[in-house]
## 1
Amino acid sequence: MTAVLIKGARIYGEGDPVDVLVSDGVIAEIGSVEAPDAEVIDATGQVLLPGFVDLHTHLREPGREDTETIETGSAAAAIGGYTAVFAMANTDPVADNAVIVEHVWRRGREAGLVDVYPVGAVTVGLKGEKLAELGTMAKSAANVRMFSDDGHCVADPLIMRRALEYSTALGVVVAQHAEEPRLTVGAQANEGVQASRLGYAGWPASAEESIVARDCILAKHAGARLHICHVSTAGTVDVLRWAKDRHGPGLISAEVTPHHLLLTDDRLETYDPVNKVNPPLRTARDATRLRAALAEGVIDCVATDHAPHAVQDKDCEWAVARPGMLGLQTALSVVTETMVRTGLLDWRGVARVMSERPAEIAGLADQGRPVEAGEPANLVLVDPDAEWTVRGAELASVAENTPYEGMRLPGVVTLTLLRGRVTAREGKIG
Ligand code: DOR
């Protein structure tokens, strides 16, 4: 593998520009470096960060390769600056057994663009009725570290309790899609003024907040690690603050998506199902609180909930459209817009919420590491001043359902390195 010499980058956007030599998969040297045999990357004006880790990606393989494959999703991830992604279990068939999680893991290795970690289902078939064989999946070659029925809530408190208890013995994390299903029957959009005005059945904030509160209590009793997926309401921030204060650090963690940081239910005016997502886009007040909570650490990290869907499932009537939006290639830009340009986070903060905390939550030893000599060269180079215009058709995903179509966004990923190998540069693979 050719060595790579990144010239003149500012690590974490701090201090003077330095050269970073990457060889044999690690950061070999940082300083003023000459390396005649290395490929030289001019990184003037750019910020060097640890590669991003996404705890929440839908790669759709097996089953819906017409919308995304492990290879195309991995390409989108690498171009978006990611070096590791967690592939959710709501595939077809569901990843609720060792055969499927090993298949996903192997296909991820074959694609070789990011480390693909399969998430195992908590319950058989995501039906919420019977625990899946968590132990078999954890001990399989795929070494499953995270379990989730995402797309569905583990609504039965006894099943959730058992899952949390088993998870402690296995040393894994349960990630909850917090949605009390009895409160969201027929729901189409955030319950509130907008939904009432436009005639959508509402998805109340309390459906999320009540499950988060319940599960924090269950996790405390089980001494288990609980992760809350896609936090979307101001009230959930209050519950998390309470639970983290009460439980001490470490037991509870939470993620927010880029779309819940930037977009609001004002978008519903267009009736365009590209804006339909679960949990739904909330109010501007919620988005403001989510940003503040992420800056403060009450919400630990950003996760994309990258959810590709076929044209016929999005370009249709709102009520029958599937929820979800692409996110891997736009995450850094949305975080730049909402968190960096607003002064809420500096680049070290971005490294924390997009790389270090997600790696810690999932227990990854070789991701989210400091950008220092001797560390694994999982890195991303970002041009903080550049802007780009999002075009769904130009993204690496098979599906094109981006809510940012035509938007000009700041922050461009110019280079991604996975263990010292260039996986993406300037919006393209390799
Ligand atoms: O909007 C969503 N889409 N939310 C989820 O929880 C699932 C996801 C999907 O799989 O499409």
Note: The longest strand covers residues 379-389.
## 2
Amino acid sequence: MSKVRVRFAPSPTGFFHIGSARTALFNWLYARHTGGTFVLRIEDTDKERNTDEALRVLLDGMKWMGMDWDEGPDVGGPYGPYFQSQRQAIYDEYLKKLQDAGRTYEKDGAIWFKLEGERYTAYDDYLKAEIEKVKAAPVIIDDAVRGRVERAEEKDFVLVRKDGSPVFHFVNVVDDIAMGITHVIRGEDHLSNTSKHVELFKAFGVEPPKFAHIPLILKEEGSGKMSKRDKGALIEEYESRGFLASAVRNYISLLGWNPKDEREKMDIDEIIELFDFPGINKGNSRFDEKKLSALNAEYLRELNIESFTFLARPLLNEAGAVSEDVDEDYLQAVLTLCQPKARSLDTLAELCGYFFLDDYAMDEKTGVKIAKKADPKELLAEVLPILEALEPFDADSLKSALEAQAEAQGKKVFAYFPALRYATSGQAGGPDLLPMLAVMGRERVVTRIKRFIG
Ligand code: GLU
């Protein structure tokens, strides 16, 4: 078999939708799996919508997800240009081939593609008029995902509009031929176009590529297809919400594909190795934010603390939890405690903001609950002098000093813990208490306890 050449052929819209990202990813994975070539072709024939900004969103999204292309914008390649808006000469040349073969005609100023078959006049329900139809032999598509699909075109269709602009079906097929594309992996919404495309391939005397139409991504609730307004639909938002690209990529690879075992978290190398058409689901897949978050949390826990801090810092800054000049060592020490608890970076400020902000919120329910057992102010007044004098102020010393105090008072050391945590953080839970106090440091802890006691 000739070397695999696949392409991702987006029309830039200003958004990088999760459905497009999935199509791009499946093409990229297939290219990497087979050692083939991944082409990025920009279908920018709609001049109004195709701005530089729209292109940038797309290319940035691809780069963020780590999908590098072997041919296309920025990198070039032997089959360029890779923007349809720059390929008019190629379309003219291919149109001429069809004209020379007698497969076109002009009607109402447009250039039409002439199907082969017996012609007859029939009433068209949609147009509410008599029109010419064609009994063309059905086109058979041996789709790598859907299996055998049979469909007969019965009307000629336009190739070049009145204003001289070529239509999608024509340029899409011409480019797939001119660029030597061997496999077309795209959304199921294009399955209904495929018989037109196959008719064009046949008219050019070219064997059509292998098609693989991938099912829809449904929104989290309901039966509809995910639209750009649904939460989680836009790749650019994952980046600003602090999701890890590796987690998003892993998650999207599982939207419509699975390695036929229970595995979910997989290295990209593993996915590349296992990815193939038989693993693509026939049924639609459903977006599941919880599953994505769980995967993201797993990836977050694996980061080394330097990378974690690097990613967390701007989000904490944006949320107002840390200032630009936050003490680097303190930030890293806090994040070392919080990383194992973090589910996402955008909720990190809620999780650990109190380490940095002195006006942290006091959770009322927790306050009521701990006051039921014993007066927290009394407990804290008891240990305050010990904390003020403790040297060094670390987890081990805290442990022995508090234990000694508890023993002297005939208490268990844990008796002090809820009050200590609540006074210093306003919360019921968090990282292990003694390391947490040690990281906060004596001054912060003492000041907070004094303020709590009042
Ligand atoms: N520009 C088309 C789209 O964005 C490409 C379809 C195809 O992959 O053939 O849907």
Note: The first strand starts at residue 5 and ends at 8.
